[in-house]
Amino acid sequence: MASSPIHQVEQGVTKDDDGEEEQQTRDWAGLPLDTLLAVLGRLDLADVVLGAGHVCRPWRRAAREEPALWRRIHIGRSSKLGTYYRFEPGARLAVRRCLRWCEAFSADDTVFLPDAAPQLKSLRLTLTPLNVICKQDLNDAIRKFTMLEELELSLASDDTALYSSGSLAKTCAVVALSCPLLKCFRLNKYRFHWQSQFGDDEAMEIARMPGLRSLQLFGNSLCNASLAAILDGCVSLESLDIRHCFNVEMNEEMRAKCARLQTLRLPEDSMDDYELSFGCPKMEPDSPGTPGDPDNIGSSWYFR
Amino acid sequence: MEVDKGKGEAEETRKVAEADRDTVTLKSSDGKLFEVSKEAAARLSTVLAGMIAGGSIDDNGTDLKQIGSEALENVVDYCNKHANSIPSAALISSSISFNTAPFKEPEEWERKFVDRLSHDALFDLVEAANFLGMERLLDVTCHKISEMMKGKSPDQIREVFNIKNDYTKEELEEIRQELAWAFYDD
Questions:
Q1: I need a surface site. Which of A121, A296, B13, B45 has the fewest CB within 10 A?
Q2: Domain interval for residue A79
Q3: A230 in the same domain as A130
Q4: In terms of pTM, does the model score above 0.90?
Q5: What are the boundaries of the region Disordered (chain A) (predicted)?
Q6: Does residue A139 sit in the same domain as residue A174?
């Protein structure tokens, strides 16, 4: 049989999912830099740090030297970098190298805290039981984020023991003190609990964030007086979401206070566009109109 | 005189017709013509939106010299499919919002759309999407590429994309040490 022409030897032959052979002629290593950045910028941090960032010289150069790539970092659910990050100094080093330039960081269900990101303007964390960020670390990190404009701390389940005994109020106090530029704040509980006292403590700290324009408090137990304090203290507030904050009673006085807001979502409003998962509210047992509660009321007080 | 006037009128008529048309014609590097919904093109591509607004769309086919016919066919196909699908609420963002949200997952038809492409076609489509400033198509194509890289070591990625290992021995050793915690521990 005649031998193949030389140029075909140089072409790659890979098998696709169906096992069919496919000729590859494009030079992926030679992707123009802006296209390469568009591709790498959409990968999970783990996939760049562990794989794509080392594939060839141009890709490695881009992954290490292009600040644009790291302005926004998102770490998805169950990123395998998480385990490494906890136990391997090498992994922390690799992540920190990326964080230098980070302006917006978000993570679902991970152990990451971007404490080496001096430029951070936006931080969104979903806190889970598996999360090993301890509240002291979180508060210490937030003290460094003096440029922060957006902050989300959302609890993803009842069992977020980390935030027992009012530590979110302490975190709010640190935010109020350290982040004068904060415009958007989301502090979302997993579910409303009528008996929790922590909501009011958190609200009193939030009332000390005069720059806030947008506030989301899902399932918070704050009462009318605390909400009034927020409305008085946050003079620039334009948007407020207090869905599932069932201790708030929207009486005439409260409605008058809220009249200046451009957007207002009330405790009973539809949850259709809510992005996170949430639990069935624990209502006061004797209150009229208590929604059916499949869970055992009275157990697990620690999550309040 | 008479002829000139006629020409002018024809020019005028053509311009009016152009403004009224709800499609635009694009011409690939190899001279093939494609029709695409004007609305979808303007909505999905910042570059085409600029050309349409600036009147630099040619009725006889706007030259896109950087894009081959196969890639342009995919671009046009994507635009037309998009024009027929209901825009997802997720794509509409409000003025005061968190801007760190990762890009939205591709919808089912978008996934199918990129899944059928060969590696070469995917490469060309990413380049075209980037050239035309098509954020959403970039998201969808890059999502596909990232799926092809997910969980893979540099070696495995090189194999998938047929990329040559161009490092020196010393550089390879440096990388090996840097990633010792991940792949190279025995």
A1: A296
A2: 28-102
A3: yes
A4: no
A5: 1-24, 282-304
A6: yes
